[in-house]
Amino acid sequence: MGNLNLGFRDYAPLPSDFNYVGNGDYRDSDFDSFNAELNMKLSRNWSARANFGWNEFKISNKLTGLAEFTVTPSAAYLATKNRFDYVAEMSADPRAVLADPSKTASALMTRRKRLEESLGDSTSYQVEVTGRLEFGAVTVKPLFGAFLTKIGTGSFRRESTGAPSAGVLNSATTPGQHFQPWNFNDPSTWDRSASYDVNTIPGINLFNDSEGEDSAFYGLLNASLFKDRLILIGGARYNESWTTNTNLLPTVATPAGAPVVGSKFEATKTTPQFGAGFKVRPDLLLFASYSESFFIEDRSLTSFNPAYNTALPTSPTNRVTTSQPAAPTTGSGYEFGVKTDFFNGRVSSTVSLFHLEREDRILRFRENAPDGTFPTITRQGTVDESEGVEVEVTWSPTNQWQIYATLSLMDIKTTKATFPAIPTNADPVYQAAYVAAYNEARGLILNAVPEGSSETLASLWSRYNFTQGVIKNWWIAGGFVHTGDKAQRTANPTLFIEANTIYDLVLGYDRKVGRANFSGTLTWKNVGDKEYFPSNQSRGMPSRVVLSLSTKF
Question: In this model, does residue 383 exceed pLDDT 90?
Fold first, then answer.
């Protein structure tokens, strides 16, 4: 906002059908896949399943998009008020403030030229063996399995990198500049007809090639005792993942050609799982469980390069930042609760209390580099905790009518994070101001709700099947999904995406002819055309009707 960055505020007050793309933009996609599964009965007590999958994709995307939305308060406004006052007024009524020349000098939307191409393939294998063993009053059901997924991807990206000078229009001599910005308050400047040659845009990376494998071996034992009144579950899974990346960088100060920069990521972890359940009566079960998880949030971290030489020009061989392998993000959690199945199965429910922890999540910081730039540095060590209650209820008033409802109430917060060091400055006033801002930033992140998290979720769904007359085999369904306020930015705990409730309706038909099953559905999604935002910089899908036909034989 002017020369002062006050951070991410909210979405620009644009119409719901607004789009930045140009008339010549396109997306070409090509997907191919093949899957096969084999089920075998090895003996009376043992069965096996094998699965094979192959996928291949190619995507080419020419996309003119938003580079920056820059708002500058007017000099007259700043003569009596400050930028923080302006932000407060913007939050209250953004359309009025942006359209008022006494408050806003300019509101510009810069459009960036971009080409992204990617391709890849994956091959997956999985095998499982299950059994049932009886030892008197004890029944043990073992499961053993393994899977392997091989993945190869490649990407190519070109992107304009510089804002154009005033009056300099797009031409063959300016391939690296953005388009001239649009004036938010003057839709006549929203020209989507201007095109550009994607082959003339500078390459961000000439080519990025990646290959890797994800594999696991796992086992699970399910034991029931005392005529199925006591159920015990225990298992573990060994996870292994590796990826090799090769980046062919643009030729910059390298007469011999474009340098190849490679990195390898490897991670292994064993994740256990334990659980127990006790039937107080046949329709009432008490349970408790503990489990751990393994998740690769990012495969590399960006940090300052200790070998960077400030006396030499920045180049691919004298880089300000360097990459290093990231650690996997891990999680652990426990829950306990009760399951019911009352009135001969008419009312089934699950009520559980839970506590979850996620460790080594990555935070990103814009930091001052030795060359005067502000690259994004990634740091691990963030810990998030959540605890709450979940409720699921299924009610069947009749054999043809089912009602399903869920509710989740959670307390989610960041409890630990790894922050940059505080730099020192000879000016005591500057140093004191920086320390104060640094401590304020820590306070904004710690105990805040992590980005994209909502502490309230609820849903209701109902379906009725027609079983007689001319409408036999038809069914109708409808319901809603409610998402509470969702955190937009970890660095601003007061900024949330508003709660929303999305309604859907479905008309369906199912019929079996011989050994084949046929089905069709006509779904009206987002009834009422509710405008909502699932996450930062994304808009929810509008009201739409979807027809789906399928068969299985």
Answer: yes
User: Quick one: three-class SS letters along 421-479?
Assistant: CCCCCCCHHHHHHHHHHHHHHHHHHCCCCCCCCECEEEEEEEEEECCCHHHCCEEEEEE
Q: Is the pLDDT of residue 236 over 90?
A: yes
- 56-106: pLDDT as tens digits: 999 999 988 876 788 889 999 989 888 778 878 887 888 899 999 999 999
Mapped onto helix, strand or coil, the DSSP state of residue 504 is: strand
d(CA 265, CA 242): 5
Q: Are 512 and 551 contacting, i.e. CB atoms less than 8 angstroms apart?
A: no
Name the band, by pLDDT with cuts 50, 70 and 90, for residue 392: very high
Amino acid at 99: A
User: In degrees to the nearest 10, what's the CA dihedral of 513, 514, 517, 518?
Assistant: -20
Question: Distance (Å, rounded) from C-alpha 336 to C-alpha 440?
Answer: 38
CB 439 within 8 A of CB 456: no
Encoded tokens for 237: 């899974």
> Residue 210 and residue 241: Cα distance in Å, rounded?
13
User: Could you tell me which residues come within 8 angstroms of residue 40 by beta carbon, excluding any fewer than 6 positions away?
Assistant: 47, 48, 49, 50
Residues 258-280 have pLDDT tens digits of: 444 556 788 899 999 999 999 99
As a three-state string, the secondary structure of 78-120 is HCCCCHHHHHHHHHHCHHHHHHCCCCEEEEEEEEECEEEEEEE
Q: How far, in Å, CA of 29 to CA of 59, rounded? A: 5
CB 148 within 8 A of CB 134: no
d(CA 144, CA 128): 6
Q: 176 near 203, Cβ under 8 Å? A: no
Which residues are within 8 A (CB) of 454 and not within 5 positions of it... i.e. 6 or more apart?
483, 484, 485, 486, 487
Entry pTM: 0.75
Q: Please give the order of strands across the beta sheet that includes 182-183.
A: 65-73, 104-112, 182-183
DSSP state of 328: P
Helix (H, G, I), strand (E, B) or coil at 137: coil
Q: How far apart are CA 196 and CA 177, in angstroms?
A: 11
Query: Of the candidates 423, 438, 483, 418, which has an alpha carbon nearest to the alpha carbon of residue 456?
Result: 483
Q: What is the dihedral sign for C-alpha 414, 416, 418, 419?
A: positive
